[in-house]
């Protein structure tokens, strides 16, 4: 594993040096008559070179697939230090508006080079094709029994989810709300949730019949824009495993009664989907 990590770091360093370097070397020890003019060279960014040469793009993909194949099956999980920056950042996202409901007991970081290479390759392809995407951290509630398989093989939109989970599309569901995602965790007091890196491009509002988003869209969402459904492989990477304790049944019952009274007495508000004019699928 140490050699693999060194390879990744060395690859990133060489990539950065390739993009920043120019050929400024001068010939030394040569005697010539008259002025010598250096030929003009046109340097292309790596993304431009790949975009203009489909064959090079194929070789690029083949190279990364080979690296991914070598690292397949290697998964490392490490508990984060509660004082670390990553722990604080994930805790803040997780406990937002839920401080009285959940208590984090441990956060683990997941390193799967095989999945990470595929995810980064997908992100690079979007960049080469000049497709605007945003990388964000979202939550996915999960049962403890599924943690190992997800860390090893990623989420599978063909297998995971229930009819209830397909309310906004038949793909993998993620949410910016840990409270919403917790509905799909274990029912016991001790629960787990995964914080996931997700690539989000163009969204439309989906429904339970959406099997794939329309042409030009890669993600479906709900009207309040806190649930996102992804339909393609490698557009998400399980980054952190959050171990936490949930609220007890008495607390949950009181909260449900309060929410039901609020929904009964209030009219439908203007949603974020309405505000941003996000199209809805019929």
From TrEMBL:
**Domain PARP catalytic as annotated: residue spans:** 58-253
- Enzyme class, top EC level, equals transferase
Name the segments for region: Disordered: 9-34
InterPro entries, sorted? ARTD-AVP (IPR051712), Poly(ADP-ribose)pol_cat_dom (IPR012317)
Q: What GO cellular component entries does it have?
A: nucleus
A Gene Ontology molecular function term of the record: NAD+ poly-ADP-ribosyltransferase activity
Q: Does the keyword Endoplasmic reticulum apply?
A: no
Keywords, comma-separated and alphabetical: Glycosyltransferase, NAD, Transferase
The record, for Gene3D superfamilies, names: 3.90.228.10
Report the superkingdom from the record.
Eukaryota
**Record's PROSITE patterns?**
PARP_CATALYTIC (PS51059)
EC assignment: 2.4.2.-
Q: Locate the compositionally biased regions of type Acidic residues.
A: 15-27
* Pfam hit, one: PARP
Name of the featured protein: Poly [ADP-ribose] polymerase
Organism, scientific name:
Psylliodes chrysocephalus
Lineage of the organism:
Eukaryota, Metazoa, Ecdysozoa, Arthropoda, Hexapoda
